[in-house]
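Quick start: load a record and inspect it. Here is cytochrome-c oxidase:
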Amino acid sequence: MVGKPSRERRGRARRAIGLTGIAALLPIVLAGCSLDDAFYLGWPRTRPTTQSEQMFDLWIGSTVAALAVGLIVWGLTFWCIAAYKKKDSDTELPRQTKYNLPAELTFTALPFVLIGILFYYTVIVQDNVTEMSDEPQSCTNVTAFKWNWQFTYSDDECEPLVGANGQPVTETGDSGYIPIIVVPNEEDVRFVGTAEDVIHSFWVPDLLFKRDLIPGSDAQTTRWEVDFNSEGTFVGRCAELCGAYHAFMNFEMRVVSPEDYETFVNARVEGMTTPEALELIGQEPYATTTHPFDTDQATGEAS
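Running the structure step on this input writes:
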């Protein structure tokens, strides 16, 4: 009979350890992540802009700091459980510690210090993300509508370029065509966004942030800039629930060299279509990161 409580305690301890291990593995297993992906904490591996690199570093740094604080709290908690566990021979409660001024000051000041550090770096990154240059290197007007996108290529002052047909140089998507926006791989690339009907949201996941596009006057127009640091092809989506076909409202962003961008834009001005101009600079003529969906309400199925 003497050994029975001990065996029961050991059994409970083993079960607790097992459940803890399962709980730690569940997020990774349920998310379907590989071990490498787990260290990115859900963020994309590719970050083609300076701003996305800064936001990634801020997120990882704050997560590591939170885990460090968590480990200290968990360690102290389990240490207290083990060190002050009541034994059968105990007849008195452990000595109580009250009104410990140094401890109270430490536990009050330390969170403020941590919050101040996090606030400082957050403001720095936020200022860099929202900064606007006086003279952008390129400019593209983005117009969202139910349920697709129109991109209008513009000059450095964000005035639409006029093609050989006398009309603005635009790229417009429809239910059977994914629109492609081409931008140069350089700093101070500006976007000017608006919406025709309801609120939409311009979102390229690899850029790590989005911008809401709001219908209305010029006061509602959204302007932002990014500094690209690598070429590539990236999927774009609408991140604001905007109606029946919100989920199908995709586009593709192509980041090309400044020379290829100039060649592409000149070709569009001369009258080439986007697929023709993309082939001219050695790019795939149609979207590769996403595809059109069947929007026939009679079938209700994606193609």
